[in-house]
Amino acid sequence: IKGRYMTRYAFYDKAMRDQMIEEQMIVRNMEYALHEGQFVINLQPVYEIPSKKIIGAEALVRWNYPKGPIPPSKFIPIFENNGFIVRLDRFVWEEACKVLRAQIDAGYNPLPISVNISRLNFYSQDLLEFLQSLIKKYDLQPKMLKLEITESAYMENPHQLIAMVRAFRGNGFSVLMDDFGSGFSSLSMLKDLPVDVLKIDMAFVQEVDKSSRAGAIMESIVELGKHLNMDVVVEGVETQEQLDFLSKIGCREIQGYYFAKPMDKEAFMGLVQRSQDI
Ligand code: C2E
Ligand code: CA
Ligand code: CA
Ligand code: CA
């Protein structure tokens, strides 16, 4: 028994040590990586059903670390702890604005791009001014840039977030509630927070085949969106069955591997061009 305990202890110890080493590596390299252009954005299209037309995209950060890509699930939580996410997010927003500008310069009808706003950004006094300066710099309309926020920002400081969301919308930006339904206060938050779009948490759609409850909840959220005059996006759609279900319950906007995975800027621009060729 003692020997067994020792091996398990050694196992946890090693796993924890590996994780610490990886975390230190990430923190040690982040500044240089940003400076050297190792961070890039990918764009994942959002489609409308039943037309199957592309109607927008979400910008997602990627770290092309020279020894191999590091997934966001590894570095985002670390950057949310040490504050670097604020700089990285601003970089991503600017990259998204460049893609909007590139669409206009190419003569396309620009598709809106949504960007993630980590909760730490809400502690910056100049958040709105920064976004406005980007819109100005790239000569865009604020409605082209959609702002994705999450419940965690609300839970930390509801009054401040409500004021910020009002200010965003008052200045022409659209606001999305990301991962809707994944937190503890989704409904009470919705009561106070005037967002334009609900993005239903991936966990629901990925369970519709197994659980009729997940399906019933999704159907109710789509209905709720209609009553509150909000668009509803479902993300994480991977199969034809899921798509069929969503069409049946009257869902109109979909993001998921079934239609397209996140892709680099060049591939995205090609897709936009083909979608607008008539
Ligand atoms: P999220 O904002 O909920 O983004 C959606 C995630 O789901 C993305 O993962 C996307 O690639 C993935 N996804 C989309 N469709 C499907 C599907 O059909 N099946 C499955 N299994 N996954 C799908 P990604 O890019 O790895 O990002 C993970 C999370 O990291 C994001 O979740 C977001 O919370 C965070 N993140 C990514 N980029 C940024 C960023 O620029 N800023 C901030 N603050 N967070 C970011
Ligand atoms: Ca998101
Ligand atoms: Ca999400
Ligand atoms: Ca998320």
What is the number of helical segments per DSSP (H or I, 4+ residues)? Answer: 11
The percent of residues in helical segments reads 40-55%
What does the radius of gyration come to?
20 Å
Work out the strand percent. 15-25%
Poorly predicted regions are none
Strand order of the largest sheet: 1-2-3-4-5-6-7-8
| Ligand names | ligand C2E, calcium ion
User: In one word, what is the shape?
Assistant: globular
Largest sheet: 8 strands, mixed, barrel
Average per-residue pLDDT, rounded, comes to 94
| N→C terminal distance | 73 Å
Organism: Selenomonas ruminantium
Protein name: Diguanylate cyclase (GGDEF) domain-containing protein
Describe the structure.
This protein is of the alpha/beta class. It has eleven helices and eight strands. It has helices spanning 2-35, 72-82, 84-105, 127-137, 151-156, 158-170, 186-192, 202-205, 212-227, 240-248, 265-276, and strands at 39-48, 53-63, 113-116, 145-149, 174-180, 197-200, 231-235, 253-255. Strands 1-2-3-4-5-6-7-8 form an eight-stranded mixed β-barrel, surrounded by four helices. Helix 3 (84-105) runs parallel beside helix 4 (127-137). The longest helix has 34 residues, at 2-35. It is globular. It starts with a helix and ends with a helix. 31% of the residues are buried. It binds ligand C2E and calcium ion (3 copies). Residues 44, 60-61, 71-73, 76, 85, 89, 92, 116, 118, 178-179, 235-238, 255-257, 262 line the site of ligand C2E. Residues 23-276 form the EAL domain. This is Diguanylate cyclase (GGDEF) domain-containing protein. It comes from Selenomonas ruminantium.
